């Protein structure tokens, strides 16, 4: 198994789990056998372009997203701040304006909550 195959497989697994899908569900949507998908996720297969395209279409993602290994690093906690910000930006680039504005509002609320909790902690010491 090559490092590249392993990274692609990890990325497929992460995208599948983000959607709350089982391997069987993704395999069905991609018209692949679930054992084949399982071996893809483990990086044990030399994946054909056709199979990869089926997975990309089933996940309804931009083909470049399958090679965005940074997301996996962010989720596993191994990415630095700059890489994490780039991953967040990449996620937002493919969303429409209303969705980006909604994420922005949610982020503002979260940061205000963090600031409030931080102030409460500082005041109690």
UniProtKB/TrEMBL annotation:
<dbReference type="GO" id="GO:0005829">
    <property type="term" value="C:cytosol"/>
</dbReference>
<dbReference type="InterPro" id="IPR010982">
    <property type="entry name" value="Lambda_DNA-bd_dom_sf"/>
</dbReference>
<dbReference type="Pfam" id="PF01381">
    <property type="entry name" value="HTH_3"/>
</dbReference>
<dbReference type="InterPro" id="IPR001387">
    <property type="entry name" value="Cro/C1-type_HTH"/>
</dbReference>
<keyword id="KW-0238">DNA-binding</keyword>
<feature type="domain" description="HTH cro/C1-type">
    <location>
        <begin position="12"/>
        <end position="67"/>
    </location>
</feature>
<protein>
    <submittedName>
        <fullName>Transcriptional regulator</fullName>
    </submittedName>
</protein>
<dbReference type="GO" id="GO:0003700">
    <property type="term" value="F:DNA-binding transcription factor activity"/>
</dbReference>
<dbReference type="GO" id="GO:0003677">
    <property type="term" value="F:DNA binding"/>
</dbReference>
<dbReference type="InterPro" id="IPR050807">
    <property type="entry name" value="TransReg_Diox_bact_type"/>
</dbReference>
């Amino acid at each position: 198994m090559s490092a590249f195959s392993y990274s692609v497989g990890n990325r497929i697994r992460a995208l599948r789990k983000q959607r709350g899908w089982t391997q069987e569900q993704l395999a069905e949507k991609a018209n692949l056998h679930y054992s084949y998908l399982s071996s893809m996720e483990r990086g044990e297969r030399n994946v054909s372009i056709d199979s990869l395209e089926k997975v990309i279409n089933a996940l309804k993602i931009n083909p470049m997203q399958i090679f965005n290994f940074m997301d996996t690093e962010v989720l596993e906690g191994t990415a630095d701040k700059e890489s994490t910000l780039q991953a967040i930006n990449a996620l937002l680039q493919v969303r429409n304006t209303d969705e980006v504005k909604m994420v922005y509002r949610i982020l503002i609320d979260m940061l205000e909550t963090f600031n409030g909790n931080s102030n409460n902690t500082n005041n109690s010491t």
